[in-house]
Design goal:
Keywords: Ribonucleoprotein, Ribosomal protein. One of its GO terms (biological process) is translation. InterPro entries: Ribosomal_bL17, Ribosomal_bL17_sf. The chain is α+β, with helices and mostly antiparallel strands. It folds into two domains: 107 residues, 50s Ribosomal Protein L17, Chain: A; 33 residues, no CATH class. Helices cover 56% and strands 13% of the residues. The chain is built from eight helices and three strands. Strands 1-3-2 form a three-stranded antiparallel sheet. α1 crosses α4. The radius of gyration is 28 Å and the shape is extended.
């Protein structure tokens, strides 16, 4: 299942198998970030599939190079009709274009910048933000004149 996930980027399975597969595959993907002979041999000892290993080290490792973890995503689908087993898709995170487009990463090629909020800062009201903007405007207007304005005066003094 691990080599199928790496080659196909998304497989449909039960939730229990997907959770077990996640624990098996994520360390292998993490190992693929460092492309050495030793790490290739270690990954091959787990996967036993040359195509999956080469795919992992060539394409998958480049896409997840900046990601610190969480390389797989489980999307639950509901219960199977025959035995009512919970079904899901398990996929590699950086290969689902629909999810990337929704978050804005696919169009720009960059990840959104996330910020952490603290409780100390408090929120400003609309009046406070307007007042802060008005106090900033007169300071900009009082700035020294530009060089273009000073240049004609310098020419007058020379004549």
């Amino acid at each position: 299942m691990a080599s199928s996930l790496i080659v196909h980027k998304r497989i449909k399975t039960t939730v229990a198998k997907a959770k077990a597969l996640r624990m098996y595959v994520e360390p292998l993907i993490n190992r693929s970030k460092e492309d050495t002979t030793h790490s290739r041999r270690v990954v091959f000892s787990y996967l036993q599939n040359k195509d999956a290993v080469s795919e992992l080290f060539r394409e998958v490792a480049q896409k997840v190079a900046t990601r610190p973890g969480g390389y797989t995503r489980i999307l639950k689908l509901g219960n199977r009709l025959g035995d009512a087993a919970e079904m899901c898709y398990i996929e590699l995170v950086d290969y689902n274009e629909n999810m990337l487009a929704a978050s804005g990463e696919a169009a720009t090629g960059e990840k959104k910048k996330t910020t952490r909020r603290s409780r100390r800062g408090g929120k400003k009201t609309a009046e406070e933000t307007v007042a802060a903007a008005e106090t900033a405007k007169p300071a900009a207007a009082k700035a020294e004149p530009k060089e273009e304005d000073q240049a004609p005066e310098a020419e007058k003094t020379e004549e």
